[in-house]
Write a structure and sequence with these properties.
Blueprint lengths: L12 E7 L1 H8 L5 H4 L4 E6 L4 E6 L3 E2 L6 E2 L13 H8 L9
Parallel strand pairs: 1-2
Antiparallel strand pairs: 1-3, 4-5
The chain binds zinc ion.
Length: about 100
Amino acid sequence: MRTEGKVGSSLQANLTIAAPAADHALLASLGDDLRFVTITSVVSLALADELAVQVTPSGATKCERCWHWRDDVGHDPAHPTICGRCTSNLHGAGEARKVA
Ligand SMILES: [Zn+2]
């Protein structure tokens, strides 16, 4: 799939990183924080013999607070324009980050 011109910012990108075992383990150790390290909205990891990175435009909705493109934007009818992470940070217990 050609993606030129379809990703306007890094946060609109979804990444798929295919990596050899050692690199995969290192990246996986970051958990969900990997998306914050790469400044993208979603990162998927896969095992492969060689490193390869695929960028695809997000099909999700942009959160008006954090600008991440997330499937859970509007999950709370009381806050229809923000994502679950922002809802939690503003009105709940807040997010837990480990490394980033
Ligand atoms: Zn948000």
